Automatic annotation (TrEMBL):
Belongs to the DapA family. This is Dihydrodipicolinate synthase family protein. Keywords: Lyase, Schiff base. SUPFAM superfamilies: Aldolase. It comes from Dactylosporangium maewongense.
Length: 326
């Protein structure tokens, strides 16, 4: 059962509903193309960025889960940030995931991202060690205090094993610590409760973005500000179309596009569970689709992930044909 969130009061709560929203729209977590020898394929990465921009996205998020951030060494992370921020050159905001186990490690990544010129950083709760809610809040406050850039919390309990407390999120928003949230909990009732409490508190500049690719139309109708879709790597135009329909109040058209994207999302299941995990299958499918669409050169994923075989890649190809992408 989801508990009700009490409205938060504070300086930011007095701003009123006339204050414009912060980050909105479609902000895909950009895949990290790799070469066969497991270096960052910068040429493919920049083609992918251009593919996203041409698809009508409103921002980019590098070094998130779909970017394989957990698998990349620091030098790969630095290469991705420098290349993308320089290439985008302010056309859209570029958020950088500074995801790591502890505050000091996160701060190292954050300072580097800020020096590179990012538009904001994305931070999970600490992980590996068991963390008390007070420690999670201290973590977020300390990162924000030491980094002169907007901070977005990333609620990712499936990987971090910690659910961010909604009361804490609104308290940090009211205190100016957090600019927004990527919600990847999959809890639509909890998301609606958070959005209602945010609006009741007048925290209208606190952006709430859903990470659930298959219920974007519902989240936008509830008041979410946008979406961070891993599948948006493969079909950025589809998510941009869905978002524009929602903004225009064309909910039937938004639902129709959402259902097409749902069918496309079936590619994440092509990998046999007898020989690989869900992550290997999903990220391998995204990269296979991008290679089939001519965007990147190789569908290599970082170890210890297992690569898709020819039959699984052919299943991706058939789905792309069925959904109008090939």
């Amino acid at each position: 059962m989801t508990s009700t969130i009490t409205s938060t009061t504070g300086a930011a709560a007095t701003a009123g509903s006339t204050v414009p929203r912060g980050l909105t729209g479609v902000v895909p977590p950009v895949c990290t193309p790799l070469t066969p020898d497991l270096e960052v394929d910068v040429a493919s990465l920049l083609r992918l960025v251009d593919f996203q921009l041409a698809g009508g996205v409103d921002g980019l998020f590098v070094l998130g889960s779909s970017s394989e951030v957990a698998f990349l060494p620091d030098r790969h992370r630095a290469t991705v940030v420098d290349a993308v921020v320089r290439h985008v050159a302010g056309q859209v905001p570029v958020l950088v995931g500074v995801i790591d186990m502890t505050t000091l490690r996160v701060l190292d990544h954050a300072h580097r991202a800020v020096r590179a010129g990012c538009a904001g950083i994305v931070v999970t709760a600490p992980f590996y060690t068991r963390t008390h809610p007070a420690e999670v809040e201290l973590h977020l406050r300390r990162v924000a205090e030491q980094c002169q850039t907007p901070v977005y919390a990333y609620d990712l309990p499936v990987s971090v094993h910690t659910r961010l407390d909604p009361q804490m999120l609104l308290r940090l928003a009211a205190d100016g610590v957090l600019a927004g949230l990527k919600d990847s909990t999959g809890d639509d009732a909890g998301l609606r409760d958070l959005l209602t409490a945010r609006d009741d508190a007048g925290l209208s500049t606190f952006s709430v973005l859903t990470g659930s690719e298959l219920t974007v139309d519902n989240a936008l109708r509830m008041g979410a500000d946008g979406v961070v879709p891993g599948l948006g790597n493969v079909d950025p135009h589809g998510y941009a179309t869905l978002y524009r329909h929602a903004v225009a109040g064309e909910w039937d058209l938004a639902a129709r596009e959402q259902e097409r994207l749902l069918r496309l999302m079936r590619i994440v299941h092509v990998g046999s569970p007898a020989r690989m995990g869900r992550g290997s299958s999903a990220l391998g499918a995204f990269k296979a689709a991008l290679r089939l669409r001519g965007v990147i050169d190789h569908a290599v994923t970082a170890p210890p992930q297992i690569q898709l075989d020819d039959a699984e890649i052919d299943a991706v190809r058939r789905t792309l044909v069925a959904t109008g992408l090939l």
